[in-house]
Amino acid sequence: MFKRLLGMALVFGMAATGPPALAQNCALRADVIAKLQQIYSEELAFGGLQNTRGGQTVMEVWASRESGTYTVLMTHANGISCIVAAGTDFFEVTPRAPAEGAPS
């Protein structure tokens, strides 16, 4: 009985330490956007809806052509945005124009 209680306490104790680490990357969307614009000069490059288990979230990519930085955000319906990824050396790809003539 004691071993089982100790094991459960350890499992729940370790599970409780996980969410604060994730919460450090989340804040109100307006606050996150303000930081991205002020500190990194990032602007919204593209985004879209993503269906998740509990509803829908908005996935956005913010980028700066000047600094080359980018940030991927997931915004939940409650207005909380979480930074999923961030990096440097952002680039855009221009689609090729279709070749003229009949395909061979």
Blueprint (SSEs and pairs):
Elements: H1 2-23, E1 26-28, H2 29-40, E2 43-51, E3 56-63, E4 70-75, E5 80-87
Antiparallel strand pairs: 1-5, 2-3, 3-4, 4-5
Biggest sheet, in brief?
5 strands, antiparallel
What is the strand tally?
5
The class by helix and strand makeup works out as alpha+beta
Kindly state the mean pLDDT as a whole number?
79
Overall shape: flat
Distance between the termini: 75 Å
Strand content: 25-35%
Q: In sequence order, what are the helices and strands, one letter per element?
A: HEHEEEE
The radius of gyration is 21 Å
Approximate helicity band: 25-40%
Could you list the spans in which at least 5 consecutive residues all have pLDDT below 50? Answer: 1-22
Q: Treating each run of at least 4 consecutive H or I residues as one helix, how many helices?
A: 2
- For the largest sheet, list the strands in their spatial order: 1-5-4-3-2
Overall description:
The protein is α+β, with helices and mostly antiparallel strands and 104 residues long. The protein has helices spanning 2-23, 29-40, and strands at residues 26-28, 43-51, 56-63, 70-75, 80-87. The N and C termini lie far apart (75 Å).
Describe, in short, the structure shown:
This protein has about 100 residues and is α+β, with helices and mostly antiparallel strands. The protein has helices at about 1-25, 30-40, and strands at about 25-30, 45-50, 55-65, 70-75, 80-85.
Salient structural properties:
single chain; flat; disordered N terminus; alpha+beta; 5-stranded antiparallel sheet; 104 residues; 5 strands
